[in-house]
Structure formats: structure tokens, C-alpha cells
Specification:
The chain is an alpha+beta fold. It folds into three domains: 115 residues, Tetratricopeptide repeat domain (Serine Threonine Protein Phosphatase 5, Tetratricopeptide repeat, Alpha Horseshoe); 63 residues, no CATH class; 143 residues, no CATH class. It contains eight helices and twelve strands. The chain has a four-stranded antiparallel beta sheet, with no helix packed on it. The chain has a three-stranded mixed beta sheet with strand order 4-1-7. Strands 8-9-10 form a three-stranded antiparallel beta sheet, with no helix packed on it. The two termini are 45 Å apart. The N terminus and C terminus are likely disordered.
């Protein structure tokens, strides 16, 4: 996937306006405001310098400090780009959206740059479309998002999230939603969900004592049958061996576990190699562009013919990294599922007693489900016992 970055020219063209707004306080402004303006201007320029050097994490920290001192839309756009380049896509998405909401009189080029960065950030995230009764407060993982209806789906990191909706009547509903990278999930909350029913107390009919009812005597106790022979009296019944009805699921599960493990190892190694190649190519491109004085643009942004082959190789390596990572995750999940099947059948599978099948409590259903995220990969298994 090609990385799009706003040009240094854009950052520097927005800087004078920001600096001017920082350095022209009204005459009635207090001395403390003037000091904070100067500090914000210094942090902003510091962030631009870091960004031009490719030190995106440091640039993000400087722009955060500048925005805390003076909330200016020009800082927001630079902050969003720095967050995106330093692998904070969720922050970047929020800053891009805030810039589009708050910035006034922006050019079409700035709007296009912002929308492009927002799309790139969302490609690394998941989204949750929340539907809830009007005016219900929506929160995700304890963070308040807004009141229903929301303007758009909520951007979230890939993984499982807890979505809550609290109505104006005080009724709260909660759902656990799993979201994969680049995918959209839904959370639906009913408009008229009734509260849980309350069990009514049992009514006891009054006992009529005017008539005496004869209660029949209990039946005579039945004596247990005597043992078949006195020779066996007092002898404990020996336990008989119980065996699995079939070992096939054990061997199949073990084979799947081994095959999945080998697949995960092979593709994880291939992914590591492809990642090293991608990093090496990107570093070479950045170094070459820095030597030409093109430090403000990221690798492969509007590449010239000089960099066409290198950028194509970089794109191929990144695509290989993603493919190998997915196959490694699938192999790992299949291996885990096979191991669980083998162990589960060995411990809980149906058994026979002297050749007669005896039903036992075991796993009636076993359903593997993939879990693939930025930091969590594998499979989960659920079953009924």
C-alpha cells in the first residue's frame, strides 16, 4: 500500500499563517497569554523540523504540546499527519475529522490532503456502526462518543470492544463487538427494550379445615433382593475398563495441529524476511531523497522515474508481508484447533464398557472462530458440554 504524505510545502505554507496568528495578540492580551503564544509557536516550528527529518514520533509530541498551548487548526492538520506516520491511526483519524469540522476557509488541496490521510488511517482501523434510540448516550470501551443518532460509524482499533447505550430513561444496554482491520461491524440497541420481568409472588390458596380428609397410609417398604449367592456377599463389584469408541479424531486433530504449526512457522519466517526487505528498500529511498533535499515528502510520494522500480519493489514487499502474516495466523489457528480437538476427544469422547457403548458427557459441538488483529492473532473455540 502506497504511503501518501502531505508535502513539506503544505506544512511550511500553513506555518506563516499559524505563526502570524500566534505572534499578533491583541494589545489587551495578558502577559501570560503572550508567553503561551510564544511557547506554542516554538513547539510548532519544532514539530515541523522533526517532521521534515522523518522523526514523526517527536513531531507528534511537539504538535501535541503546541495544540495544548494554542488550539489552532493548522496545528491539527500537522498533528494528524504526524500521528499517522508514527503508527497512531486512531489518533490520526480523530484529528483529521476535527480539522474538517473546525477549520474555516481551507483550500481544496488541504481538504483533499485531509480526506486522503483520513482514508489511510481508516484502512488500518475497524469501524462500528451504532444504532440506538434518539438521544441515547453512546460509549465505546468507557469513552463517551456522543448522543444517538451518530453522524458516522465509530473508528476503533481492530479487536473486541464494549459498546454501551444509555437512554434518557436510565436504561443501559451493552454489547461486545469484534472488528477486523478494514471491516465494519454493527451494534444495534432496541428503542423499546422492556426491563427484565420481575417474578410475581406465588399466591397460596387458604386451607379449608372444615372437612377432614383421610390421608392414605404410605405404601409398605420394599426390601432389596438378597445377593445371588452367599459366596459373593460383601465382595466389591470390580470396575470394568472403559475405552474410546474411536481414536480417529485424536489422530486427525494431532495431524492438523502439526500441519498448522509448520505452516505458521514457515509463513512467519517468510513474513520476517519480506519485512526486512521492505524496510531496507524504504530506508534506501528515504536516504536518497534526503540527499536530494526532498526530506519533506515520504517515500514513494509522487515518485520520479528514478524511484519507480524501487517503489514498486517496496509495494510488492509490503503486500508479501501482509499475505504471509495472514497465512501464518491461519496456520496458527488451525494448529490450535487441531490440538484442542485431539485433547478434547481424548478426555471427553464417548467410551465403551465391555464392548457396549455407554453415552458420556462430552463436547456436543466445537466451533473454531478466527481472531485476527494488530496485536492479537489466533483462533478461539467454543463448545457445548
Amino acid at each position: 500500500m502506497k504511503i501518501r504524505s502531505f508535502a513539506t510545502a503544505l506544512a511550511l505554507s500553513s506555518l506563516p499563517a499559524a505563526v502570524m496568528s500566534f505572534s499578533a495578540p491583541a494589545q489587551a492580551q495578558s502577559a501570560s497569554d503572550d508567553a503561551s503564544t510564544k511557547a506554542a509557536r516554538a513547539r510548532f516550528q519544532e514539530g515541523v523540523d522533526f517532521f521534515d527529518k522523518g522523526q514523526f514520533e517527536n513531531a507528534r509530541a511537539s504538535f501535541l504540546q503546541a495544540y495544548a498551548l494554542r488550539k489552532h487548526p493548522a496545528v491539527l492538520l500537522n498533528l494528524a499527519q504526524s500521528s499517522l506516520r508514527s503508527n497512531h491511526p486512531l489518533e490520526a483519524s480523530r484529528f483529521f475529522q476535527q480539522f474538517l469540522r473546525e477549520a474555516q476557509n481551507i483550500t481544496q488541496a488541504q481538504r483533499d490532503t485531509c480526506n486522503s490521510g483520513l482514508a489511510e488511517a481508516r484502512a488500518r482501523l475497524g469501524r462500528i456502526d451504532v444504532s440506538a434510540p434518539t438521544a441515547a448516550e453512546i460509549s465505546v470501551d468507557g469513552e463517551r462518543i456522543g448522543s444517538a443518532p451518530l453522524d458516522s460509524a465509530v473508528d476503533v482499533e481492530p479487536g473486541t470492544h464494549v459498546v454501551k447505550a444509555r437512554t434518557t430513561e436510565g436504561r443501559e444496554e451493552s454489547q461486545s463487538v469484534a472488528v477486523a482491520t478494514g471491516q465494519k461491524a454493527s451494534a444495534r440497541f432496541g428503542a423499546n427494550t422492556p426491563p427484565p420481568p420481575v417474578a410475581a409472588p406465588l399466591s397460596v390458596a387458604p386451607v379449608d379445615t372444615s372437612a377432614q380428609v383421610a390421608v392414605p397410609p404410605p405404601p409398605p417398604a420394599v426390601e432389596s433382593a438378597p445377593p445371588a449367592s452367599d459366596a459373593n456377599a460383601g465382595a466389591a463389584t470390580p470396575s470394568r475398563p472403559r475405552h474410546l469408541t474411536t481414536w480417529a479424531p485424536v489422530w486427525i486433530g494431532a495431524g492438523v495441529a502439526v500441519a498448522g504449526g509448520i505452516t505458521a512457522i514457515v509463513f512467519a519466517s517468510a513474513k520476517s524476511s519480506a519485512q526486512k526487505n521492505a524496510d531496507s528498500v524504504e530506508a534506501a529511498i528515504v536516504k536518497s531523497r534526503n540527499e536530494e533535499g526532498l526530506t519533506g515528502k515520504g517515500a514513494c510520494v509522487s515518485p520520479t522515474s528514478k524511484y519507480t522500480k524501487a517503489c514498486s519493489a517496496l509495494s510488492d514487499n509490503r503486500s508479501t508481508v501482509n499475505t504471509d502474516a495472514t497465512l501464518a495466523n491461519i496456520g496458527l489457528g488451525v494448529g490450535i484447533a487441531g490440538g484442542v480437538l485431539a485433547v478434547g476427544w481424548l478426555l471427553l469422547g464417548p467410551r465403551t464398557d465391555d464392548g457396549a457403548p455407554t453415552p458420556t458427557t462430552g463436547i456436543r459441538s466445537l466451533k473454531p472462530a478466527p481472531i485476527i488483529g494488530r496485536e492479537t492473532n489466533g483462533f478461539s473455540l467454543s463448545g457445548a458440554f
